[in-house]
Structure formats: structure tokens, C-alpha cells
Design a protein that fits this description.
Elements (H helix, E strand, L loop, with lengths): L2 E6 L6 E7 L2 E5 L1 E4 L11 H7 L3 E5 H6 L3 H6 L3 H5 L4 E5 L2 H6 L4 E4 L2 E5 L6 E4 L1 H11 L3 E3 L11 H21 L6 E6 L5 H12 L5 E4 L8 H13 L7 E3 L5 H9 L4 E4 L1 H7 L2 E2 L6 E2 L19 H5 L2 H9 L3 H16 L1
Parallel strand pairs: 4-14, 5-6, 6-10, 10-11, 11-12, 12-13, 13-14
Antiparallel strand pairs: 1-2, 2-3, 7-8, 8-9, 15-16
Helix pairs in contact: 6-7, 7-8, 11-14, 13-14
Length: 340
Amino acid sequence: MTFTLLHKDKHSKARLGKLKLFHGEIDTPVFMPVGTQASVKSITPDELYDIGFKIILSNTYHLYLRPGVEIIANQGGLHKFMNWKNNILTDSGGFQIFSLSELRKFKDDGVEFSSHIDGSKHFLTPEKVVKLQEQYGSDIAMVLDECIQYPCSEKEAEKAKNLTFDWAKRCKAVHTLKTQLQFGIIQGSVYKNLRKASTDEITSLNFDGYAVGGLSVGEPFDLRNEVLDYSVEWLPDNQPRYLMGVGTPQDILYGVMFGIDMFDCVLPTRNARNGQVFTYNGAINIKSAIYKNDSSPIDEKCNCYTCRNFSRAYLRHLYKAGELLALRLNSIHNLYFLNK
């Protein structure tokens, strides 16, 4: 399992690469659809194959709560459980626990939280998160980190950075699954000195790849790009770089320009379910009355199943009528668009 850097752009930090994983090779830059609960919402595995996806993301936290690691392991691992033959990246659950806000409490040895499903109490340690992901059998596993909110003080950001480093060391020490890569996560909020320190610390552990975490948590667009620009400068050139939780078309283009190789986000499918679809002239809301007699596809340049077969007028009709097909067709288009 290797990462090969194939080409670097002369005018930006953009690059082409090939990431070889246990379930096949991936061309980078790559967008990973989010299958939080072992399913990309409203989309079948065959449709994901047809679009061209070689890797998707699933969520350690959600799968731990439901259906539980024992059921997944007994079914032969996550790939067999969801009938997905290509690669899977599992995140550590750190961001989901961060988003629980009042329902969680960080400690030196792990994080205590209440389930958003039934209120039951749980405690996850870095070691437990690693073992969960090994039982899932994912191709890339993320370490447990503390994602800090924006805005925050430098002191708060430094504390989260230090805890993330301590947890990363513990994750590295217990990771044993040879068919699974493990990625470290850089933190530090929007403080350049902390980002540099976090990068030095995490890269010293020699992970298989590195993620820029702690962005897209409320900071302004320009500030995010500034932080991303200098953060990438300090990452190793010969290993994959992953920007977590960022996925608008514009965000991806900027990320590629700054040298990012991997992206994930719930946005394309979530927005699709709310009627927003991407076009090369910007996003449109298919619910709008201006499309009720529009016989054109969502985008004339798009060759996805939806655009080849259906008009804006039909898609608007489906949405206004509450038909589930609207959510599926919109999602197919948005995923195809981002992959393209």
C-alpha cells in the first residue's frame, strides 16, 4: 500500500497522485462520498461504482452506537456488511463527539459522551477507537483527535493540540492491522504557531498520511484558505494529504490548488435532498418556480444519469410532489458533478 506522486502543477501546489490501498488504487485528488451509517444516503453501491467512486467514508462513532461493532464484525467486516467492494475510510468520531457539545466531556485518557440516540453513557479512548476501526476492516483509519471550536483562545487551541498529539501517540502504538493505513490529524485552530507545532509533532510519528483537521467549523472562508495554505507547506510531499469535512465545488478547487489530495463532505447529498443541485454556473434550487416548464437538464455539460434522462421541470415536479426519486436523482447528479 503506497502513495505515488505523479505530477506537480507549475503555477500552484496542485498535484496528481495514485494511492494504492488494499481494495484497489485511487487517483488523487479524490472526493469521498460520506456513508455515515454504512450507506451513502439514497444511493446504491452500484450507482457509486457507475459514477466512478473508488473510496467512500463511514463513521466510527455512528457505527459504534448502531448497529454496533459486534454485528459488523460477525457479518465479515464493513465491506461485506454494506456490500461495498472498493475502499473505505473510517473517521475516528472525533468531529461527531465535538458536535455533541453539551453531551460530551474530554478527559486525558479519552472522551465521555451521551448517545444522541438514547442518552446512554459511553467512554471512548484512543485505543478503543483504533480497535473499533480494525474490527470494521476499513482501508484507512483516522486517529482520535480533539476538534476545537471556532472562535477559541490560543490557550484552548494549544490544549486541544497537546491532547491530540498524546492521543495520536497512543493510537499509533496499538495499531496492528496490516491491511489498514492509519492517518494522523493536524490541529491548532487558526493559530499559525500551533499549526506548525502540531504538524511537527504528528509527522514525527510517521503515519501513512495526514489530515488537516479543525477547519470548516465556522471560520471565515478567507481565513480557512490562509490556514490551509500554510498548513500544507509543512506536510510531507510523498504522503497523502486529506482535508476533512470540506466539500463545496469552490472549496475543493481551492483545496486542490493548495495541494490537498483527499476530500469528504456530506454536503453534496444533504444539499441534494434539500433541492440544491450543482451546475458549472453555480448551484441552483430545483424547487424554484422558474423551472416548472424548463425542459433542459440540470447542467448541459453533465453526463450523469439524471442529466441524460430528466429535465429540470420533471425534477421540480418530483420534489414538489414529495417523491423519493427526487432525492435520489438530485444526489446522483451532485455526486457525479463533484467526482467529475
